[in-house]
UniProtKB/TrEMBL annotation:
Belongs to the type-I restriction system S methylase family. The lineage of its organism: Bacteria, Pseudomonadati, Pseudomonadota, Gammaproteobacteria, Oceanospirillales. This is Type I restriction enzyme S subunit. Residues 1-179 form the Type I restriction modification DNA specificity domain. Gene3D superfamilies: Bipartite methylase S protein, DNA methylase specificity domains. One of its GO terms (molecular function) is DNA binding. One of its GO terms (biological process) is DNA restriction-modification system. It comes from Vreelandella songnenensis. Keywords: DNA-binding, Restriction system. The keyword Transmembrane does not apply.
Amino acid sequence: MSDWKQLRDFIKVESGFAFPSDAFSDFGVPIIRMSDLQKGIVTLNKAARVDPKKVIGLDRFKLQNGDFLIGMSGSLGAYGVVDSELESSYLNQRVGRIVKKDQSSGIYQYLILLLTSSHYLRYANKIATGIAQLNISARQIEDFYSFIPSINEQQVIANILNTLDTQIRQTEALIAKLQHVKQGLLYDLLTRGIDESGQLRPPYEQAPELYKASPLGWIPKEWESTELGNVLSHIDAGRSPNCPDIPAPSGVWGVLKVSAVHPDGFKEQETKIVEQSVFHNPQLEVKDGDLLITRANTPELVGLPCLVYTDRSRLMLSDKTLRLNFKEAQDKAFFFYTLTQSWVRSQIQVAATGTSMSMKNISQSALKSLKVKEPPATEQKMISLRVYEAARQISKESQFLNKLKKQKAGLMDDLLTGRVRVTELIDQQQQAS
């Protein structure tokens, strides 16, 4: 007998109730819609709600802990698992609940994995109807032909992939914890600094004699309160020639989009190709180690800094980006971290000008007038190193996370299509028992 079967032999898809949109409010019973399926979980952050009277007699649409939900409109790859906090929620139309048939010879976890695979997503996108928004029916989901081997093989495959899932969740949690620790460390370093013994100074409340008053509040006695312009040598402004909105390939001259500059990292793919050689300007070329800042952007993003780490060449500053060049004694990374802090961001928000609500500008003179803290040069470098070490640990775990995700994607593609079989592993387990 073939191991390829339709899912309808094992599951049924239950669609949600068509709650009228005019019944939605900010209070009452949560209604789970497509937008509430986020990266494998179901969230109530933006869930619509209805008056409890509206769900009387609709118990069959009430969600249970462990229910697997799948998108049937728009993003057909969206899915999520219901947890105990959502048991009072109800299912809306165009969201499907996967229910295993009582007499089927299928492992529920395995059947769910099939519906999260790239094989299913390709099928769904191919068979879906609609132009502005793709739609797939419950019947079409149930018609999906899948590789469904013996119960033993299903269980082994599910165990392998679930073990990887656990590793991924644990690594994600570790990264979130490390990021939280880094933020706390950064705040302490930029308010208390590092003493001669290499330790964080005690806070002002514990050792007021180590601090002095300044326009920026209490700062260590060895520090100065100054303006950003006093630590800069000069600022480079870019230009934006008229060019097609096509990314510049590696080694080809291009100009940065404003979206290339972000505190999370330099996004070197956010460029436009500059085809006319008359506009190629080596003096505006972005170099590894540059500190860039956006001159014009939305109110939330104007004045965002970015430390450049790249081996790309021939990428030029645009008219919406600036390069901050520092005096020799100053540590560029220290001032990058400073420019990301809320007490500097609030100054930028005030200094930004423009009548448009969607676009603001900040002038070079306004940037130079920003109030910043200036520790001694050696302490600046020590602070930057501490933050770098914390960031390096996060980067290391992020690389491991990406490796796990690639490994899982590869295994899903192999194991859930029968390309690689686990029968030998099953035989080994049976012999061992």
